[in-house]
Amino acid sequence: MATQVSSENVEKTIYDGLVELGTERDDLSREATLESLDIDSLDLVELAQIVEDEYGVELKGDDVKDVKTVGEVIDLVVAKAG
Amino acid sequence: MTRRVVITGVGAVTPLGIGSDPLIDRWTAGESGIADGYGRCLDFEPTDFLSKKEVRRSDRFTQMAIVAGDEAVKQAFGEDGALPYDPYRVGCVIATGIGGLVSLEREQEKLITKGPKAVSPLAVPLMMGNAAAAAVSMRHGLQGHTYAVSSACAAGNNGIGDAARIIQVGDADAVVTGGAEACITGVATSAFAAMEATSPTGISRPFDARRDGFVMGEGAGVLVLEEMEAAERRGAPILGELIGYGVTADAYHLTAPQPEGEAAAKAITFALADADIDATDVDYVNAHGTSTPLNDAAETKAIKAALGERAADIPVSSTKSVIGHLLGAAGAVEAIATLEALRRREAPPTVGYEQPEAGLDLDYVQGSAKPIANGDGPVVAISNSFGFGGHNAVLVLSAN
Description:
Largest interface: A-B, 10 and 13 residues
CATH topology of the largest domain in chain B: Peroxisomal Thiolase, Chain A, domain 1
Largest sheet of chain A: none
Radius of gyration of chain B: 20 Å
Structural class of chain B: alpha/beta
Oligomer: heterodimer
CATH architecture of chain A: Orthogonal Bundle
CATH class of the largest domain in chain B: Alpha Beta
Helix content of chain A: 40-55%
Order of helices and strands of chain B: EEHHHEHHHEHEHEHEHEHEHHEEEE
Number of strands of chain B: 13
CATH superfamily of chain A: ACP-like
Largest sheet of chain B: 11 strands, mixed
Number of helices of chain A: 4
CATH topology of chain A: Non-ribosomal Peptide Synthetase Peptidyl Carrier Protein, Chain A
Radius of gyration of chain A: 11 Å
Number of strands of chain A: 0
Strand content of chain A: under 5%
Low-confidence stretches of chain A: none
Number of domains of chain A: 1
Helix content of chain B: 25-40%
CATH class of chain A: Mainly Alpha
CATH superfamily of the largest domain in chain B: Thiolase/Chalcone synthase
Order of helices and strands of chain A: HHHH
């Protein structure tokens, strides 16, 4: 059963996912850039798998190619699910 | 003028511990790292050395190569690891027999149980055989010839030998080279057991009449090779010299060695010719010595054929008696053990060897280590590695 899509839930999923990928939790914020967190294209694919598992939302490479910050990833997932 | 190749750094992760010191110290003392029928690196915890992200981005064989590589590079190039050469003139050749089997099996399980969308995008970059070479290259900024060598259980020697050739022909001033293997997994253990290659009793006792197969091990060995004059100019720590390399193929059978060891003997002969020395110059043999009935018999014949009367006069011992068979990492770890044995002038024992078999009548160094004798001059050893597919690769090392 897919988790209900709310900004708070998605934020938690994304934050937990990024920590799982090796990011320090203290470095996380909506404003943090993916580049500053050392999150690259391979990490984004793994993050997309976590999101899809949780919300049934499919994120393709094209969807995330211009995303710069953690907040933008969260907003994208919420918008896609909406 | 031939460019000569010296060894200026070594690093190892083996069932005897993390580092090249525990490998040679513990083996020389007759201690074994084999437990419950496997040579596992029980002390190896990747997060002790790598960040969480680095661990996620690497299979276990790559992680071991990175840690062994750090040790070797530090010894050769100093604590900060700053390259003393143009990065495009420093290569990285890391061998493996199988590659990232742990990762492959994990992702296969996800594919079967959860479907294709659950398979990690990292599956292929983790399992690919060149992953260790790529990771070590990235870690130290090595931008010269960089790739993996794959020739099953001969791969470690082929990697080191090919690395030396790259330096000799002038394509590099240094190459970080070796081998890594970590495939004590369901598929590999089952397959080796099914072909009756591994020991059903879980005992590695090379050359002993009771030997019944090899014991699987895991680990990595990495060496830094440098062109001798460049190494001398920069005052590098010169541990020894790689003076010869010989390679042949049996062209006989997918897994069984040619029973008379003819092509293996030829590889030894070629290696000695490459080193421009005679059999009488050899002071120690680090045998492939797998503990399988077929290898140890064929290898004994090969050593005798290639070294003639000298074979009976020198110690011959097998590192696999204490760490098991590290497959594609075996040659690399054993080259390090051989080099360190020469430096100490002490041949470590073939642990567990007790009962001779007819025809297997070399000095397999029973019981405890014995001196490697040759006055005060440099001492010379050959290190054999043979692999499934009929690959034979022999290194000749010397040290003062």
